[in-house]
Design a protein that fits this description.
There is one protein chain. The chain is an alpha+beta fold and 438 residues long. The chain is 32% helix and 28% strand. The chain folds into 2 domains: 3-336, BirA Bifunctional Protein, domain 2 (2-Layer Sandwich); 347-437, Anticodon-binding domain (Rossmann fold), CATH 3.40.50.800. Strand 19, helix 10 and strand 20 form a beta-alpha-beta unit. Residues 109, 140, 142, 151-152, 155, 157, 281-284, 316, 318, 320-321 line the site of adenosine-5'-triphosphate.
Length: 438
């Protein structure tokens, strides 16, 4: 991608209402533009990262056995009347009336709709266990939208819904999502700690929030320090038996403010291990039994032919919020430092003199060869001065920066910089390309 043909509206300074660093950097790096309170347009660079985050979430859901579908953003109010939540949900729900005076709502979540889809088609226990997920925009008319995409009103969520014949198998479904979440966040370079969480307003009796520790987090959290450094389970686990992995993590104290019990925290955790911190909720999993299947009559015939209400769970990931969380965890004074796994481009090739024929030829060769081995390349072919180019490259946080200018080229050298470490080397182009290839 040639920067001169791209759309990257960076800002020298963030608007003063952007209070936290991730929000400031997302605006400055040209990732998003605010359209209304808590509603953002995703600009090209932001969309690239959003898509990559979404794809990691998708891959880990599928690895854990969940199946993707896509439900609409608009839902019928009548569906929510069946569960009793149409009145219970309150002012966070955006209610809409169509030309026929039919009441609709912009979905804040999809328990009712997925239960309806399930009951329309599934009649036998043989289809279970089943876990269906989608990645779709949600709307919640938050009282205080703030911190950019962290607490938006319109935001992208992955929500999965599991269906099982009984509680024991529902817990296995819960465990699969628990482990999938550990793997998902780790792939994005995040340390997310599962913490006991309150179950309202969705209801139920088993729930964990996945929290990324960050000073700017909205939640107060309490946990055993050892949880933060615990190794990630990885893909090679026995997906049918994850209880020991879950037990290992839930045995140590970790709770959000609503669930915190100071006395327990002190008795269960050595003083040196007691961590009180702020955190960002990036995921939330619930087991809620028959809360929706009972009123909505989602039943299957069991092996004995008797009809039973299915046991359900729901599992959310704040896909758009994750961009904020990743930036909170990975930035410096010059800008964003994207982890390789979610970076919008792998390498930026910086042309230091775009009116110099030899430099242009060398840059174009570098771009072509990088692309040939599968790298996503942003080519800064603009006529901006070098200082501005370096500042932009640092601001937008692309992991590799390959700089080619007339002086170096005369000696057969280019400069390669790792954004994360700031480490720079001057080497021949072949060597630089080999290093990027890894
Ligand atoms: P919060 O406590 O932050 O308001 P929640 O508990 O109401 O969130 P859930 O219903 O658990 O949210 O939604 C699943 C996930 O969606 C959350 O873990 C979070 O990552 C994300 N999310 C929820 N609300 C927002 C929002 N307003 N903006 C961005 N992401 C959100
Ligand atoms: Mg939650």
């Amino acid at each position: 991608m040639r920067l001169s043909r791209y759309f990257l509206p960076t800002l020298k300074e963030a608007p003063s209402d952007a209070q936290i660093v991730s929000h400031q950097l997302m605006l400055r790096a040209g990732l998003i533009k605010q359209e209304a309170a808590g509603i953002y347009a995703w600009l090209p660079l932001g969309l690239r990262v959003l898509n990559r985050v979404e794809q990691i979430v998708r891959e880990e859901q599928e690895r854990a056995g969940a199946v993707e579908l896509l439900m609409p953003t608009l839902q019928l109010a009548d569906l929510w009347r069946e569960s009793g939540r149409y009145d219970a949900y309150g002012p966070e729900m955006l209610r809409i009336t169509d030309r026929h005076e039919r009441e609709l709502l912009y979905g804040p979540t999809n328990e009712e709709m997925i239960t309806d889809i399930f009951r329309s088609f599934v009649k036998s226990y043989k289809a279970l266990p089943l876990n269906l997920f989608h990645i779709q925009w949600k709307f919640r008319d938050e009282r205080r939208p703030r911190f950019g995409v962290m607490r938006g009103r319109e935001f992208l969520m992955k929500d999965a819904y599991s269906f099982d014949l009984d509680e024991a198998s529902a817990r296995k479904a819960y465990n699969r999502m628990f482990v999938a979440y550990l793997n998902t966040f780790a792939r994005m370079g995040l340390k997310a700690v599962p913490m006991r969480a309150d179950t309202r307003p969705i209801g139920g009796d088993l729930s964990h929030e996945f929290i990324v520790l960050a000073e700017t987090g909205e939640s107060q959290v309490f946990c055993d320090r050892k949880l933060v450094e615990m190794p990630v389970p990885g893909a090679d686990v026995d997906w049918n038996d994850l209880q020991s992995i879950v037990d290992q993590r839930t045995a140590l104290y970790a709770a959000t403010e609503e669930m915190h019990d100071a006395a327990r925290f002190e008795s269960e955790t050595a003083e040196a291990d007691r961590l009180t911190a702020r955190g960002i909720e990036v995921g939330h999993i619930f087991y809620f039994g028959t809360k929706y299947s009972a009123p909505m009559k989602a039943r299957v015939a069991g092996p004995d032919g008797k009809e039973t209400e299915v046991h359900m769970g729901s599992y959310g990931v704040g896909v758009s919020r994750l961009l904020g969380a990743i930036i909170e965890a990975s930035h410096d004074d010059s800008g964003i430092i994207w982890p390789d796994s979610v970076a919008p481009f792998d390498v930026v090739v910086i042309n230091l003199r775009s009116n110099d024929e030899a430099v242009c030829v060398a840059c174009e060769e570098a771009v072509a060869r990088l692309q040939a081995f599968g790298k996503d390349v942003l080519y800064d072919d603009t006529d901006e001065r070098p200082g501005g180019k370096f500042a932009t490259a640092d601001l937008i946080g692309i992991p590799g920066q390959l700089t080619i200018g007339p002086k170096g080229l005369a000696e057969g050298l280019v400069e390669l910089k790792r954004r994360a470490t700031g480490e720079k080397v001057s080497v021949p182009l072949d060597e630089a390309l080999a290093r990027v290839r890894g």
